[in-house]
Amino acid sequence: MVSNETLSTALTQSAPLTGEARAAITSLALRQHDATGVLMQVVSFLGGQVEDGLNMLPASARARLDDAAGRALRASYDAAGRSQGGVGRFVTSDRGHKTLAALSGALGGLGGLPTALAELPIATTVIFRAVQQVARHHGEDPTLPETRAQCLQVFGKGGSGHDDDGVDTSFIGARIGLSGAAVNKLISKVAPKFAAVLSQKLAAQTVPILGAAAGAGTNYTFISYYTDIAHVHFGLRALVRAHGSAAVEDVFHAELAALGRPRLKGGL
To answer: Where are the domains of the chain?
Structure first.
């Protein structure tokens, strides 16, 4: 497990890329490309059937959605530093988190919109914890504030739209300010993007008849998407620690271009 100091030092290194590293970058680019596959397309289709998600929701729910997303992310970020113990320590695999998320979504969908809104913080925390475990898998301490801030970055890369997919590589090697104000600013930037994804989840859960099945399916979809994006994000960070950001980003962008995906620019 690497410390913040080790990360800071390693991110400045620039060992030449090996064939194995290039293959790993290619695999990560393909994983990003495939992340919005059949499941996300199904959710997008479902959202379209209920008038594009947000239009289906009551005005009061739409007005509260950004705020609800921000509060859920803040609560998940705060809980992430202390949630590695207790019963949660037994749920450490991607599959385990997907099962837990599906169960949460099913319960949230039983009562329509009221229970779906109430379930949002639970679903967000489950996804956040799954992203933390991906960070651990790639050699980072998931309880460190720096790692938790990087986890927040993953939530800013949602949506089924072509231009919204994937990892913003400007943050792969960057150090994120750890002050309370900096974290609040990051959450305020991430929350609207996460809320746009949540609108599809809520819309699906309000469709008559589908109910709990829609909640389980959408939660499974979202946690699958965000864990895939987390593997790309933290996988690239691991490669940057060994080979430097410039070389890794150049190859990654070239692979995305070959797959027909956009290179994301700018930051949050």
So the answer is: 4-259
